[in-house]
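Notebook p. 47: complex prediction with S-adenosylmethionine.
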Amino acid sequence: MVNCGQVKEMPGEMQKQARVAPVFRLNERAVVYHGDCIDMLKGMPDRSMQLIVTSPPYNIGKAYEKKTKLADYIALQARVIKECERVLADSGSICWQVGNFVESGAIIPLDAVLYPLFADLNLVMRNRIVWHFEHGLHCSNRFSGRYETISWFTRKTKEYVFNLDPVRVPQKYPGKKYFKGPKTGQYSCNPLGKNPGDLWVVPNVKNNHVEKTEHPCQYPVELIERLVLSMTNEGDWVFDPFVGAGTSVIAAVLHNRRGAGAETEGEYAELAKSRIVEAMNGTLRTRPMSKPVHNPAEKGRKPAAAPRFGAESGVVAQTTLFRQVAR
Ligand SMILES: C[S@@+](CC[C@H](N)C(=O)[O-])C[C@H]1O[C@@H](n2cnc3c(N)ncnc32)[C@H](O)[C@@H]1O
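Predicted complex, C-alpha cells below:
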C-alpha cells in the first residue's frame, strides 16, 4: 500500500533534534499547530497519516469548549472526520476516543452517535475498545462512569497495518506447554505473550498520576503507545486533530514515529510543545506500559474502617468488601 507523499526515513541527525515545528511539513518530526484543526488539515497532503488518534471535546462544557446542541456538535465532528479520512494513509487507522455526552441526567454514548459518520465515509470498524479506569466522579443517581471507548476504523482493505507482537501482554499461565499428544513439550501458548483483547485497564490521568498537567482531560501516554506500536511502523506519521497537552505526539516520538497535532488554546499548545521536547530529550516522566495497575488487595493494604458502618447498621462496611475482594 502506498502512503502518498510520506517521508518515512528518520535520519539520525533529525532524531537528535528536539524541535517542535509550528506548521505541518512532511519532513518534520513533531508539529504542534496553534489553531483550528480544520485549518491545519487543509495544509496536509492526502493519504499521508498512518494513525489518526484523538480524544475530541465531548461537548460537556469543559473550559476549552462551548456546549452546543448535539446536532451542531455532530456536524462539527463530521467536518473534522471527513478531513481526517482524506489524509488517512491507505494502510492507516483512525482511533476516536470518546465518553458520554450528558444532558438532563441522560447519557448519550458518543461512539454510537459518531459511528455513522465513519461508516458513511466507507471506513470499517475493527474494534470498539473499552478503556476501563478506576477514578472519576462518584454518581449518586446512577452507577459511576468507569469506562470510555476507542473506536478503531480502517479503510475497506485487508492491508491495514496491525503489529500484534509489540503489544502482547503476559499470558495468564506463562510458559504453558502441551503435556500429551504430538505437540508434547511445545508451547501451547504464544511465548511472546497474548493478544491484549479489547478491554484495556489503564489508569486515567488524575491528580496523583505522574503525567498530570494543568490540562483538565489528558489521556495517558500508555493508552496511545499501544495504538502507535500496533498500527504504525517507525518513521510513520501520527496525527491528533485535538492534541491538548500533546499526549498523542508524545506517544509517537517515544517510539521513533513522527507526530503532529492542532490545539486552539495557546496555553495548551505551549504545554504540548514543552512536553514533546521533554519526551524527545528523554526527560518526560510517563507511566510505563508494563507497570501493573495498583491493586490494594494484592498489596495487603488495609483500608481504614468506616466507623459509621457497624454490623448493627446493616450496611456492609468497606473492610468487609475489602475482605471479599481479597479472597
Ligand atoms: C479532550 S481534549 C484532548 C486532550 C488530549 N488527548 C491530551 O491527552 O492532552 C480536547 C482538546 O481539543 C482542543 N480543541 C477544541 N476544539 C478544537 C479545534 N477545533 N481544533 C483544535 N483543537 C481544538 C481543546 O482546547 C482541548 O485541549
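Notes: Strands lie at 30-34, 49-54, 88-98, 100-103, 106-109, 124-132, 147-154, 199-201, 237-240, 258-263. The two ends are 52 Å apart (CA to CA).
Next step: compare against the earlier run before touching the bench.
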